[in-house]
Specification:
The protein is mainly beta. The chain has a single domain, classed as SH3 type barrels, CATH 2.30.30. It contains no helices and six strands.
Length: 76
């Protein structure tokens, strides 16, 4: 994926929406892309569904995760 495909980086998880595709970064590591499955209203807890062996992961505010919102994919 090229960097021109990225749209917006936010540290305020409360701005995320269920169903958005995001790239997750935390503590200097790129964890890959997933879909926001759920989140608390204040964004202090975010659940992201990844593919593969780790299907769903919870991120707490203390994890200092950054979410890069990716553009919507087209329907195939």
């Amino acid at each position: 994926m090229s960097t021109d495909e990225l749209t917006e980086t936010t540290t305020d998880a409360s701005a995320l929406l269920r169903g958005q595709e995001v790239r997750v970064h935390t503590r200097g590591h790129d964890l890959g892309t997933g879909v926001v499955d759920d989140l608390t209203e204040d964004g202090s807890i975010v659940w992201v569904v990844f593919g593969g062996a780790e299907p769903r992961r919870m991120f707490l505010e203390e994890d200092a995760a950054r979410y890069t919102v990716l553009p919507p994919t087209s329907v195939r």
